Amino acid sequence: MIRAIVTDVEGTTSSLAFVKDTLFPYAASALPAFVRAHGDDAEVAALLAEVAAETGARDHAAVIDTLLGWIREDRKATPLKTLQGLIWAEGYASGRLRGHVYADAVRQLRAWHAAGIRLYVYSSGSVKAQKLLFAHTPFGDLTPLFDGHFDTRIGGKREAASYRGIIAGLGLPADEVLFLSDVCAELDAAREAGLRTCQLLREGVDPKPCGHPQAADFDGVSLDV
Hints:
It is an enzyme of class 3 (hydrolase). GO terms for molecular function: 2,3-diketo-5-methylthiopentyl-1-phosphate enolase activity; 2-hydroxy-3-keto-5-methylthiopentenyl-1-phosphate phosphatase activity; acireductone synthase activity; magnesium ion binding. The chain is α/β, with parallel strands linked by helices and 225 residues long. It has two domains: 4-15 and 100-220, HAD superfamily/HAD-like (Rossmann fold, 3-Layer(aba) Sandwich); 19-94, Transcription Termination Factor Rho, Rna-binding Domain, Chain A, Domain 1 (Orthogonal Bundle), CATH 1.10.720. 48% of the residues lie in helices and 11% in strands. The chain has helices spanning 16-38, 42-55, 60-73, 78-94, 103-114, 127-135, 160-170, 184-192, and strands spanning 4-7, 118-122, 148-150, 177-181, 196-200, 214-215. The chain has a six-stranded parallel sheet with strand order 3-2-1-4-5-6, with helices on both faces. Strand 4, helix 8 and strand 5 form a beta-alpha-beta unit. The relative contact order is 0.17.
């Protein structure tokens, strides 16, 4: 019996195009001014120091160049993801940004929540960014549906150890937890950790079977896996 569902965001609950064509360009455009305005704030300064320690960047200008390069590479670096979350927070607060979530995902998340199934998010985007997206949608604030959030601070999404860490946090047997994603390598890692899996075949996803149950959308996700 499935007692909890852990879902990816990009390409699963939400459009990849929204992330790549809206969120990333917004963060890249706003990042230089944001760093200059908030570089001395304690939280931002700590994140910039992480980048400098990793790359040897000597000043804010060099750190900004590094971060913009990471955005272009779509690098899953925790300090970058956290900074993006802070930048997006300003965008959502100003009304310039609005989170995209598929209608079928909203419908099923609400149904599963009402049925007593615990819901969690695991994304390479920071926990802050996840909460912002789900708090500012055309369907209203969806954050009350979720029992918890995980990001790369628990580990990479293609590493089985990350999913073992999630299971330890949930306090449930692994085979009572279903992981939803569009990426086969992530599903492989989750299955290695003992979780049940289902691949979402959103737009642009190769429908070739990769050893996991598949669904075109959340309405097609079976809990009898």
